[in-house]
Specification:
The chain has 11 helices and 17 strands. With about 425 residues, the protein is of the alpha+beta class. A 12-stranded mixed sheet has the order 1-2-3-4-5-12-6-11-10-9-8-7, with helices on both faces. The longest helix is centred in the first third of the chain and has 16 residues.
Length: about 425
């Protein structure tokens, strides 16, 4: 029997089956209490969740929801965020994901979303649906004792204050501070209220006991919150010496100065031997703050945020450009949603993107455009890898100038 795909939004029993199937698909034991399942159903947005049902059993899951994505500082577009994609091992290779994602992406284009986004659990799945890796990450472990920073460092008088904060204060200052940060950070997405509820422990999905993290807030000399860090310490005493590792859950600096202050604070705390940064932008300033940058060792790195265009002219016209110039882009889309030839006429003052019949300067797929448009990959690098074809001499160099960004894109949040 061919599994039947339907919305699970209107039936709590279907939503519960969906949650358990998603956990099974990710090989996570689905031994949740009914209270935990009910809480997930109440707190998460299931309005666009789809499930594939074989008889009464949910065997594949898919969910999307509204999101905002920053392309370049101050330039934000509507995104269709894809999450919770899982197919039970007994029902793989039956086209269930293909049916759900093509239906959802077509609906997103019809709604007027500019792009679709996701975090890919497996690299080789989503390229065939037009996605490409748009923003990566690097994860460092910093040996605080070898970093070379003054262990007695304190914030200079007159430059603001650093103070520990409780969950209630984080809930007040965090959302507004993050809004200022994310609208200036290419690749960042908006945070829903549920993010803050989970960060502060107000809402807990997991059955494990809640371990309260530490929060610190940096305020500038005018008392305005400019930075927030959440972290958890772990460690023991060894041979009479404290060996504490601080693991950072989230660190947001609305300004470069605030970001620098927070990292210096964490690295100078008493007893701290190691700071585990978590996933940061690949050009994060942490190593550059250290007199000995080798004390920051890369623990992990890779792709993270994936993206695919839905509105090709809208996407190209929505971002800022570093230089003036024109390019004709021939974009190929495996699903046909953003296929076409577009004339991009851009300058630092603004851009237009219009369909054209002119000969293309560059030919590329939607997945390659995703790698280019946020500035994480240069056109030259993509061309060297055979992912982009230069049809007109000099077009690749022109694209490098146009799409260049001062900082690499970064998405701080998994979804």
């Amino acid at each position: 029997m061919v599994p039947h795909i339907r919305s699970v939004a209107d039936d709590p029993a279907d939503s519960e089956a969906w949650i358990r199937a998603a956990l099974t698909g990710f090989l996570t034991p689905p031994a949740l209490s009914r209270e935990s399942v009910a809480l997930r159903v109440a707190k998460q947005d299931f309005s666009r969740a789809l499930g594939a049902f074989d008889g009464g059993r949910c065997v594949a899951t898919y969910r999307s929801f509204d999101q905002e994505l920053t392309l370049t500082p101050g330039r934000v577009v509507a995104a269709n965020a894809v999450s919770g994609v899982a197919v039970t091992a007994t029902h793989r290779r039956r086209g269930l994901l293909s049916r759900m994602i093509t239906e959802d992406l077509a609906a997103a284009k019809e709604r007027g979303d500019t792009v679709a986004t996701l975090v890919a659990a497996e690299y080789q799945i989503y390229g065939r649906f037009g996605f490409g890796p748009a923003a990566g990450f690097t994860h460092w472990r910093v040996d605080a004792r070898r970093a070379g920073l003054d262990p007695r460092w304190t914030l200079p008088e007159g430059e603001g204050t650093i103070a520990f904060a409780d969950a209630a204060e984080v809930g007040k200052v965090g959302p507004e501070l993050f809004e200022r940060f994310r609208t200036a950070q290419p690749g960042a997405i908006d945070r829903k209220p549920l993010f803050w509820e989970r960060l502060t422990g107000e809402t807990r999905f997991d059955p494990d006991p809640w371990n309260e993290p530490f929060h610190v807030v940096f305020r500038d000399a005018d008392g305005v919150p400019q930075g927030l860090a959440t972290f958890s310490p772990d460690g023991t005493w060894e041979v009479g010496m404290p060996e504490v590792t601080v693991s950072v859950t989230s660190l947001t600096g609305a300004t470069p100065a605030a970001e620098s202050v927070l990292w210096r604070f964490l690295l100078a705390m008493d007893w701290v031997a190691t700071v585990d940064t978590g996933r940061l932008a690949s050009d994060a300033i942490v190593p550059l703050l250290l007199p000995n940058p080798r004390a920051a060792v890369i623990k992990d790195y890779g792709d993270f945020l994936w993206m695919r265009p839905l509105d090709l002219p809208g996407l190209l016209a929505a971002r800022d450009y570093a230089a003036a110039g024109a390019l004709v882009l021939e974009v190929r889309d495996p699903l046909g949603l953003a296929q076409g030839r577009v004339l991009l006429d851009a300058s630092p003052e603004g851009a237009t993107a219009t369909p054209t019949t002119r000969a293309p300067d560059l030919t590329l797929s939607t997945g390659t455009l995703a790698q280019l448009v946020l500035g994480d990959f240069s056109a030259s690098r993509l061309a060297a890898a055979g992912l982009l074809d230069e049809e007109t001499s000099g077009a690749t160099s022109r694209a490098d100038s146009l799409f260049h960004t001062g900082r690499r894109p970064w998405c701080p949040d998994i979804f």
